[in-house]
Amino acid sequence: MVFEKLASQIKRLSLSSSCSGDYSESSDSSSTSEVKDPRDAIVQRPEDYSECRSLTLANGIKCLLISDGDQDELSDPSSSDKSAAAMAVKVGSAQEPSGIPGLAHLLEHMLFMGCKKYPNENEYDNFLSLHGGSSNATTDYELTSYLFDVSTEHFEGALDRFAHQFICPSLKKASVKREVEAVDSEYMEGLQSDTQKLEAIFISLIQPEHPFNRFTAGNKETLLENAEEITHELRKFYDQFYSANAMYLCMVSPEPLDRMEEMSKVFEQIPNKKTLLLSWEDYPIPKLSCNFIKYYPVKDKTKLMLIWFLKSQQKNYRSKPNDYVSWCIGHEGKGSLLSYLKSKGYAVSVECGTSAGGFDDSSNFT
Fold it and tell me: Which amino acids are annotated catalytic?
């Protein structure tokens, strides 16, 4: 349960900061953490009894702390001794060099293969496994997210290992080939996913000059030609985009907020390079080169899909107008579209909406 809460909160944190205009260009940060009254920055549901705190670390990282041990213990006793953290970096596949498809995804893999303080490649994963934890990471077009959970007793140790991968990652040439194999394995698995294959089809039909018309997953063919050159490009990409002013941190734990704020200070060692962050808001909305696609799926399923490219709805993340439309069309009760289609024998289900991120919901289009 703590993992699910963390994933949703880190997305909200990155949207709230970027949509407010705070991060279109970095500003000088103060030498101390700027702590805001949670009532001024955070709106909570009446039934949410978590204690929250919003703050900006000394190097400019936007941070959200959630102390929710009591609430989680009531709903899921097994989660009461778990803590978790996530870091979202406002960079993704759309910013990678066009000649090296999948570089951003490879960096996501390479970042946790050792660092200056913890040079052992498997130190981070081994520590989490030893203390009942797990980790995950995803690379989207404009956002790369890293998250983990671990027993609360070892939360500070996990945070230290987590933070130092961003502070000074090793990015060793010896690790590149192995991680390219892992990236290629994910790509091969995706070939059996109708969702991923359809997304690839849509991407290929977007006008060639659009920044989202690119192969984002990466594989052996795009990443393994020259390990030394790839290592150099990884370091270059990291140095250019992995800056404190482009990062958003979220921590969830039964620990008190003051204790969590104290633990968050380790992230202040991440350099603020004052990176100018890119946005595709003013770029033309994609236009597909054809209006009708017939696709033979992997699964034995017949589906009709109607797709619209709309102006980005990210700035409306608080009111979510697209969710209202999705609910009306996807409603399954009496008088709904689905009830009519079922009565005619035309359909067994109706789905409507956009996903939470990636290709479906960007700063350029929804």
Answer: 108
